[in-house]
Amino acid sequence: MEIKVIHHIMEWNEDHSNEIKKNLADKGVTMINVMGSPGAGKTSLITALIARLREDYRIGVIEGDIAGKIDAETIASLGIPVVQLNTDGACHIEAMSIEHILPDFDLDALDLIFVENIGNLVCPAEFNIGESARLAILSIPEGDDKVAKYPLMFSTTDALALNKYDMLPYFDFDPARVENDARDVNPDVEIYPVSTRTGEGLDALVDWVKGIVRK
Amino acid sequence: MHELAITQGIVNFALDEAARRGAEKVTALTVSVGALSGIVPDCIETYFALVAEGTLAEGAKLTFRRIPARVRCIDCNAESELPYFRLRCPACTSRSVELLSGREAYIESMEIEEKE
Fold it and tell me: Which residues of chain B neighbour A5 with C-beta distances below 8 Å?
């Protein structure tokens, strides 16, 4: 017997994502899903943003990694509440993992949570995790062809930070190509050239974050 | 590798649905996948055998209906299929396009054998 079902493949994840969204909205907490390749500078960028936002907001961090707690220790050393999420081999974070971890935070004492996703330009894009916004990072040494090669990631992000921008003179990286490719898959994406090392461009990205924090 | 998680989702749904209907076996599943969904049918097929093994869905025939990415151009009004992941009108290159299809990812139908 054939039966029509029409069941969204990602529903098992979406249900949890929507639940998290509702929970965070009730608590007035904003969550930003930070995605990019290994080495793009996700932890450094989160650290740089924390330094510029911690006066105004109470911040927490979820550090996603396949193994280890190196990044969580970096964040904890700043005196910021952090929970390490190890996926034990999985290439992405799922909403259910976030749901399990949120009770580790006192949500009444937080305004903003950064989730550092697994370093990967492919899989994390498929999984909503209850985030308020997505921030993708692409660093100059990775090359200007990455948006064209990994369109899904860049098509689903709200903002794109071009990190290590101070390295631009040393690489054949055409920022105009990246902007063009990004607008081809995501016309409204906001693009921020930044360097976590020199601090250039970070003020504009900080303003973007402030624009989406609830309150 | 995320296809493993997605495949588990598909199999879990099929098993729940089969149990709900008192079915003895799931014999076929049809899955619709849009060209821009990022989901790779070949990977799902490979994982399916693994995940469904020993369940009511073991051996079920998996059929994929691939849905092309289509856009309607707001500037020139042309309706076209996108040759690749680039949200531009293939006719006039405008970025003012409305996506008509391509992001789909759903189980469309399934076949079950009911208990005698």
Answer: 13, 17, 107-110
Among A5, A94, A157, most B C-beta atoms within 10 A, so best to mutate, is A5
Q: Place A89 in a pLDDT band, splitting at 50, 70 and 90.
A: confident
Interface test with A, best of B106, B111, B112, B114 (most A CBs within 10 A): B106
Please write down the long-range contacts of A140-145, taking CB distance under 8 Å and 24 or more positions apart.
A140/A164, A140/A165, A140/A167, A140/A168, A140/A171, A140/A173, A141/A167, A141/A171, A141/A173, A142/A37, A142/A39, A142/A40, A143/A171, A143/A173, A144/A172, A144/A173, A144/A174, A144/A175, A144/A177, A144/A178, A145/A177
Nearest to B88 among A8, A91, A184 (CB): A184
What ipTM was assigned to the predicted interfaces of this complex?
0.84
CATH class of B2-68+102-114: alpha beta
pLDDT in tens, B57-95: 999 999 999 999 999 999 999 999 999 999 999 999 999
What is the CATH code for A11-208?
3.40.50.300
pLDDT surpasses 90 at A54: yes
Domain ranges of chain B: 2-68+102-114
Distance from CA of A55 to the nearest CA of B (A): 38
CA distance B107 to chain A (A): 5
pLDDT of residue B1: 62
